[in-house]
Amino acid sequence: MKNKILLFLFISSIISTSYAQEILTGLQQNPVIKQELRKRKITQSNESGIRKLETPTSIQLPFFDDFHNITVFPDTNKWLDDYVFINADFPFYSANVGAATFDAIDNTGNLYPDASTFPFIADHLTSFPIRLDSVLFPEPAAITLADSVYFSFYYQPQGRGNKPEKWDSLVLQFGHYTDDSIFSYIEYTKVPISSYIEPGDTIFPFDTLFAPSGCNQSMYFVAYDTLYYDDTVTMPCDSVYTPKTKWYYIWSSPGMRLDTFHHKFHTYCKQVLIPIKDSTRYYRKDFQFRFFNYASLASSYVPSWRSNCDQWNVDYIYLNIGRSESDSTYRDISFVEKAPSMLKKYQSMPYSQYKNNPTNEMQDSIRLFISNLYNEAFNTDYAYYVSEVGGTFNFYHDGGGCNLPPFYEFGYQKCDETCGASRACPTVNFIYPLGFGKDSILLEVKHIISGFTAADTVGDTIMLQQKLYNYYAYDDGTPEFGYGINSAFGKVAYRFKLNIKDTLRAVRMYFNRTEGNANDQYFDLAVWRDNDGEPGEIIHLSKDMKPKFSDNLYQIQIYYFENPVPVNSVFYIGWIQSTSENLNVGFDSYNDASSNIYYNVTGEWIKTSYSGSLIMRPVIGKKFDPAGIINDQPLSNDLLVFPNPSTNGKLHIRLPDHYQYRIQRAETNISIFNVYGQIIFTSPYKETIDISGLSNGMYIIRLNYNSNKLIFTGKVMVSR
User: Fold this and answer.
1) What does 311-367 look like in DSSP terms, one character per residue?
2) Over the stretch 265-282, which tens digit does the pLDDT of each residue have?
3) 635-720 under CATH 2.60.40.1930, yes or no
4) pTM of the model
5) CATH of span 25-40+55-178+254-320
6) Sign of CA dihedral 265, 266, 269, 274
7) Whole-Å CA distances, 307 to 162, 298, 332, 463
8) Which of 97, 140, 232, 317 has its CA 20 to 30 A from that of 46?
């Protein structure tokens, strides 16, 4: 297993040269960020205006974030900026599922404007000001050196992304506010046009409107459209400034390959523990810390090669009193990788094909990576649950009880002949339901690890949505890289295997954007028969296609065929390109289907040298309406719960953004479980609940909507 991991890391970090035939690049844009981008306040200075000072409210100790809620942006209750990418795709065996990824892409999803081949400061992750002068619980008291304040975090270079060079470092700074201030943003207000003109009058393009009463009167708005009496306009109101922070260097790490990092530290994710002993400088009510990274683009001047790079992953950040230099373990157990597919070869496959050979399409067992971050073993329970969303099928697998030894001594739970095999490599001893009359189903698979007794309030949950729709997918829909070949008239083919004869209706593809739209090139979409294990005769050619793009969340585009293509047994989909430009097709490095990817630039078919899967999906089955295709992009069911850790007995619970206005609160209930699975609190859904009766420890929050047809989960630590 170790050799395979190191081989993957070696292959995935290759930087292509001008002599390469196939190319693997980073991303020019991060479409997840572009989709989830919050409405930004425009940052432009107005030195002639009166300064309005806005000081963020200081938060209390302890400070903790394990990035387990995959929210794309950092938690706005803990972090002042949103440049890093919160995800579970780039981390490689991190402290738990989810981490903050630092790279060369900004908070708009684009490469930084000043990105260059020379090192430049890229992402930041800046904490709110933190009360390091005093604590309020169990009673107010000043913090002194005797309280032993420590700051810790886990980090790794590269992950599943691109290795940072030795000059591309990750840096940690501590700081505090000064008496100076810096411009932050423009504050806006909505104003009816009726406050400027009379009925029947008009404001024409390039007319100037000054800020209304109550705002900074020197600010103004220039109209670019014709505005009428009943319109409303968003006007600049004031310049907002924030206190300036003085920063001090604390720690840094030079860039390196992840396999080099592992060889040096014997771990893929290293913890750093830092005592904070300078009470004069840091024991203040406005203490802050921040991480930032230096990045540098590859030296190639080919636009389609210049892309995201130099990834770092930071995880499990913890700041508190009462710690020591030996305080490097945590009373927590966790999964460290995403929930795997229950299917043997695919992440998704056509339901019609699955039903014709269900037993052979299921895994015999799956591999889970479970970590005990504590210094003592836990007696734990494990189980997984499978349910059909909107259906009646349910399956429960009980992995039983087993000791989980500390990770720092024994590593992840082992797949051996003891009880560990029942949770680290649980069997898949069921098949998905064979619903006649249905052409698709959606399954939810949930894995739960928890303390064996009610007193062991430790545990974790991961979830997979398994889609049996009308397409095959080796990939999980997230491109860590872009793939292509640099040869005019070169070919790429992708192999799939049917259980019964069927009809190919379309191909779904994802293209990464490139610098200057360099991959906006014609290509032919091709389908091949099998010829003794490699592509043979072309049976379909859609000529003169071009990459399609969307700003939506990894929106995979569809190329449908005017005439259906009969296919049988093994077939291949792919492309024949017209130029030597890299088409930059999405490449998922998390799931390996490299044995099914072929390229041909010299007249001979060769298997790819890269570990991963193309985001190309053949659409199979009956005729469909292209405008009505199911959007199969994964939607997070993670609740946002804050403050986390909870120290004052109040807990705020927020639904994922994409469900905010789709849930009827009268049909929604909240339950709180200890990680043993016992319900200890229930109530109708409210955004704020009182948990002052809970003892210290970890708890699972579950929100049930519409009689359990939709379930949301979250995790909260109580620490008082």
Assistant:
1) -EEEEEEEEESS--TT----S-EEE-SPPPPSBSS-SB--HHHHTTSHHHHB-SB--
2) 999 999 999 999 999 999
3) yes
4) 0.73
5) 2.60.120.260
6) negative
7) 10, 8, 37, 31
8) 232
